[in-house]
Amino acid sequence: MSSRLRNFVGGTHVESADIDYDDIVDPSTGTTYLSAPSSGAVEVDLAMQAAADAFEEWHCTTPAERQRVLLRIADALDTRAAELMSAELRNTGNRAAGAELPVMADQLRFFAGAARLLDGRSAGEYMPGHTSYIRREPLGVCAQLAPWNYPLMMAILKSTPAIAAGNTVVLKPAETTPTTALMFAELVAEFLPPGVLNVICGGAETGRLMVEHGTPRMVSLTGSVATGIDVARVAAADLKRVHLELGGKTPVIVCADADLAEATRTIVAAGYGNAGQDCTASGRVLAAREIYDDLVDALTAAAQACHTGPPADPATSYGPLNNARQLDRVSMFLHRLPPHARVVTGGGRVGDVGYFFAPTVVANVRHADEISSEEVFGPVITVQPFDTEQDAIRFANGVCQGLASSVWTTDHARAMRLSRRLDFGTVWVNTHLMFPSEMPHGGFKRSGYGKDLSLYCLEDYTRMKHVMHRFQ
Ligand code: NAD
User: Fold this and answer.
1) Helix or strand or coil: residue 234?
2) Is the beta carbon of 227 within 6 A of some atom in ligand 1?
């Protein structure tokens, strides 16, 4: 019998009566080791009430007070890194989870400082005898929905700016990966007043109840495009503010003058890291015709040097996919490839225990192919040739998503031209998958709207009020 996780609401674990429980599975073995409540209306109500109660005092704290608390939480995160990362590794199979902890602590420290930097731009006498100024205020309760690819990072990345700006939060991790978000809620409860951060478990139904609920003033989702469209539609019923970080289809344009060795190393690391389950994974390579064959060969050799296996094994390059549904989805893309596409290496599941998928390179793909436009979210790198810079832009921008992109070239003018024309929220030049806390992360088109990270994100979690005083 697996042990049961409990929601964390109002500063404590709460029992949930008469509801179903979801199995929590170790993706390396496929075995269930925990279960988590599939929260219903009662649980959602309780969490929203706790967050609303906590808001009454939390929004009156000074930025300096919020900064002090967040800095202490960052220190506690450092201290408990080992236990958090071992739980994350078991729940996700992501062997790089340990390396991400300093990044998360930095995000916490960034938003701790950022809490003190919100500004109203100016105050003045814009009409005779009157003084106007701007107040930046928190919104209230924020409902947050997180995906399963980086559960702890998502919990921190989403909740910290909201809390730093003076809001309170009800966060729902994905149904397959609730463990570390709950541990984080426990950890912060030592520093934050009860109810400032509440974590409830459940799947899409629970998420829907949160979006429909009358209490939150904002819904923030990191997830798929389809979920984003549904959340925006439901939130429109009472005009809640919506913040959407959705899927991508990241193009990697490799020009003929690029440093191929460096490009290959980065594409493989950013394409297979976390088994390719990254919204900005470098899975869609567009290669200049002159270097196309060389790049396919180099990527194939690098892929064949990668090894998927249990995350604890030092020989492992990357671990399993997170769940059986994702294994089916990635396999489906490979089964549905058109005849002209060529699987150069990999192409299927590895073993029959857990959800491991081989490092895969697919060459000769064309722009109209399903795999060129749909997010795979697995360790699959496709390579498509292009003849002109114009074609590279047309292929890169010719998808519905607009999250991130990268350009590989040693020609400065070309890099400037391409980065201007790429229709993506991030353009990396001669690098990929880098996220400084100071810079905004967020997409265009169907990759959503609103920014994570940076001061822009903090502003997203505030509302602007004009106050005007007559003094004559
Ligand atoms: P998902 O959209 O299925 O789920 C995300 C969260 O929303 C989960 O907590 C889920 O339970 C909840 N949810 C699902 N349907 C819902 C609904 N109709 N109403 C309310 N809540 C609902 O995404 P996933 O499969 O967990 O994660 C993978 C996706 O997330 C990929 O598309 C990936 O690109 C995207 N992602 C984007 C970013 C980014 O920064 N843009 C980062 C990580 C992941």
Assistant:
1) helix
2) yes
* Helical residues (DSSP H) of 115-219, grouped into ranges: 151-164, 179-189, 204-212
> Which pLDDT value is given to residue 16?
83
Q: Contact 12/46 with Cβ under 8 angstroms?
A: no
Report residue 158: phi and psi, to 5°: -85, -45
Q: How far is the CA of 149 from the centre of ligand 1 (A)?
A: 9
The catalytic residue positions are 245, 279
- Which pLDDT belongs to residue 1? 43
Q: What residue spans of 312-351 are helical by DSSP H? A: 324-335
Give me the residues of the chain with pLDDT under 70, please: 1-2
Q: How many residues does the chain have?
A: 472
Report the side by side order of strands in the sheet with 31-37: 3-4, 31-37, 21-26
Closest CA to 302 of 257, 344, 355: 344
pLDDT tens per residue, range 136-184: 999 999 999 999 999 999 999 999 999 999 999 999 999 999 999 999 9
pLDDT at 2 (0 to 100):
58
Closest CA to 453 of 193, 157, 169: 157
Is the CB of 248 inside a 6 Å radius of any atom of ligand 1?
Answer: yes
Residues forming a β-bridge with 362 = 343, 382
DSSP code for 274? G
Cα–Cα distance between 316 and 306 in angstroms, integer? 8
CA distance 106 to 216: 28
- The half-sphere exposure of 115 on its side-chain side, counting CA atoms within 13 A, is 27
Atom of ligand 1 nearest to the CA of 172: 9
- On whether the pTM is more than 0.70, the answer is yes
Say if strands 342-345 and 360-363 run parallel, antiparallel, or are unpaired. antiparallel
